[in-house]
Task: structure prediction
Amino acid sequence: MAIQHPYLLFLGDAPDQLAAKTAQGIAHWRPDWCLGQLRLEGCQADLGLTDMSLEEGAAAGAKTLVIGVANRGGVFSEKWISVLEQALMLGYDLAAGLHNRLADVEVLKAAAEQHGRKLFDVRHPSREFDVANGQKRSGKRLLAVGTDCSVGKMYTTLAIEKEMRARGMKADFRATGQTGILIAGSGVSIDAVVADFISGAVEYLSPANSADHWDIIEGQGSLFHASFAGVSLGLLHGAQADALVLCHEPTRSHMRGLPDYPLPTLKACMDANLAAARLTNPAAKFVGIAVNTSQMNEGSVEAYLRRIESDCELPVMDPFTEGVAPIVDRLQ
Amino acid sequence: MAIQHPYLLFLGDAPDQLAAKTAQGIAHWRPDWCLGQLRLEGCQADLGLTDMSLEEGAAAGAKTLVIGVANRGGVFSEKWISVLEQALMLGYDLAAGLHNRLADVEVLKAAAEQHGRKLFDVRHPSREFDVANGQKRSGKRLLAVGTDCSVGKMYTTLAIEKEMRARGMKADFRATGQTGILIAGSGVSIDAVVADFISGAVEYLSPANSADHWDIIEGQGSLFHASFAGVSLGLLHGAQADALVLCHEPTRSHMRGLPDYPLPTLKACMDANLAAARLTNPAAKFVGIAVNTSQMNEGSVEAYLRRIESDCELPVMDPFTEGVAPIVDRLQ
Result:
């Protein structure tokens, strides 16, 4: 599965900017791939890209119309479907990361077949995987792990890829979730894989490579999340990570979606991840801590970061405000 | 999903006794459910049950024909299919734990619909599950965990259920694999669930119950198995186990299927399982160690068991040769 770019980003009739956050992520991390945005009547989101019709996008060379917006109530409206069908007729592939599948909409499935176009439902694995074999692969790997879900793993790993590439290092972001896949153009939605094949899917996602190449693997969930830890452990084993980055959001009062579950301490979280990671790579170690400080009182951020840095003896930063140079320094 | 009994056990044209080990497990643990065996020409397996034709089984009251034998090369032969179709016509449901599905055989699917019968492909979950909520459920739970895969978890948990019931305790074996499901008549093949829902499926499998009721959960894999540990961790979290039993096979030279991976020590394995289990049940503790001694030199067994018992300060036994009374003593 490789989604062809450049993209035209479909924002539909997004009720607000937040509804288009997938498109926003794509435009932020892959500006060169995004020719423009397609907005329907009533759309309240704006990425600051050139507004284009399907015809204008096609003329400019767009290969894929990416649905970068949540669909209200999880259904594809008639308005959307007619635009998406038109896109297939004009030669676009379609890509979406929604729960329901483009391929389950009969008219889109038929139009894709008729016009020889592809439908990418990136939340749903399109292939079967082997069971993990646990064998050491050449090349280097970094994996983001978290104290919780949704604490900035994707942002952190994309920032590390960008910083490494800026320094001329060989690095590829490896996407494990739907937004990441649309940004990378490929990847595996790891939480949608059949349980027996979690680690095997990660081995597939991050194959053997040249010795100086880094795979920067997005990561998913947390070993301390009572709903999803199995995914995180399978990821950790399949990744065979040389380097781990801990991602943390300090204002969470409990694990996401689980009001009765407190967050682990950073130390407990690092110890558990390190012990598990060393099953498949005894040399695994932490190389930094990425803190999402967006919800913190601004005046308290600096002292907080310096305190963790001193406690954990690792580079600590907010990738969004400070970048990730100190982590890449350690890896270079 | 509840498979109706009594069963007629289909042994097909099994080339040897080992090919029918699923049927053997069912006959061993649910003798009251097994009216007889159906053997085709050339069958080399024999469970010691009454040989019956489909007609004789139906007359005796059999509700389900259980395919308790591996199919050669993973395909259903013509010979099998004609017998299975005939069974549906005579009013049997069919149940199988094979990789390929009965429901994918057109003629069987059509016959089941026509005659209003059910096809149970127990290796493939037949429903969707919720994400785990991690909330404490009433009732008590025991889970078998292992140093490796295939070390006797199913045997151990079925033996505990049997011992508890013999003492008048309320206990239900909860199956997490295909043979276990055929023995229990229900369950979830946990390694075939989509990764996000592993723990949620276990919460479904082992719902709230009366305070003095024990769910005896089969377990799957090992936290130290580089291919499958994610399944084991999700199971551990979903089970919210009060009691853990460690299962071990001392003659393994490496983890099953992974020649480069040594087995963990019993202590490391117990420490890791306990730490993980306590995320969802802080009161989790080990109550015994079940050792599969079948491959050991007979003369060394007793000294080995007593040494572990002394090292770990827990009851240690081979459930097959000695039963599990000391474990149930602890729980009663």
Observations:
- The radius of gyration of chain A is 20 Å.
- DSSP finds twelve helices and eleven strands in chain A.
- Residues 227 and 308 of chain A are 27 Å apart (CA to CA).
